[in-house]
What does this fold into?
Amino acid sequence: MTEQANSAAWLAEIEDELNNNILRFWMERTMDEDYGGFIGGMDHTGAIQPKAAKSLVLNARILWTFAAAHRVYPHAGYLQTADRAYAYLQDAFVDKEFGGLYWMVDYTGRPIQDKKQVYGQAFVIYALSEYHLASGRPEPVQQAAQLFELLEKHSYDPVHRGYIEALARDWQVTDDLTLSNKDLNEKKSMNTHLHVLEAYTNLYRVWKSERLEQKLTELIEVTLDHIIHPENAHFHLFFDEEWHVKSTHISYGHDIEGSWLLVEAAELLEHNHALLERVKQVAVAMAEAVLAKGVDKDGGLWNEADEHGLTDTNKDWWPQAEAMVGFYNAYQLSGDLRFQEASRSSWHFIRQFISDPVHGEWHWAVRQDGTPITAEPKVSAWKCPYHNGRACLEMISRLNKTN
It folds into this structure.
């Protein structure tokens, strides 16, 4: 089979997975017909948890995914699902008194965690920008620009640069900074900066503000200067206010995700060629570092390690999705066929072990031997259609350009 035929077959498999497994699952099985929006929880077998809380991250990611899918498949009905997500964000999550959006609401839509987690605000900017592109409505990009201004006013650190993790509902200082129970309670994190970068990138596509351009440029520089280890090309994960490193853990999924998101951001800054070249070199180095120690012989990506070796040998769903895109991006940048093969291996691993042919969508994770971890949910505050849906959309775009 020729390389073009191989790519065409790969493309067809990804399109089928996206439309007939991932997006169909979310459209057909996650609508909350009693309280609006989408359910907050579902177990591995598909049993709905009707009183599960609803997270800002889940709802913003649903909005982004279906808006992005509509742009590729405009006749598939995806815009209606995006419309529903947009309406629910406005109705349940928007803080009409202080601005911004709540972190968590209960199953009826009442706020239960009202802090302003910067990670969550960033995902709303990301989603609103995409929804503007999908729907043509002006209000989403106006709201996204307002959120940008709120983050710059309250979260930005003018002394050391970068962004503080979280603030109270009224945007005052808070001691509750953590994103989840897995995270350190530190002032700054890789994860928040990565997704503010992602959000500002998408906003810049639809709002060519000079200030936004400057902030996006600065975010790339901060990532290169403080967040990526200059020697091993892995992300540092947590920091204090002055960028002192507070963790030695390595997250292979974030490394490979960040490698391609940095390139995407730098490519938008059309006049900063030196920065783009620097980013491309770093992206390939990051992919090389992940390929060297983060990939198992079955093609799956390990979760985490530290300086002594692996610390989490499970393989969560989202790093596999990011690996497929990140390795393919490194192949496109370098021409190194090892990266193309690693991307294909990621896809084969996903098809064999991660995609769930029985209950739909993707397993949360599999163990080292490939067996699913059935105690983890199909839908939750963090289990969403964004990583896998986006990976499919990215690969569809990239493979279409090679065929």
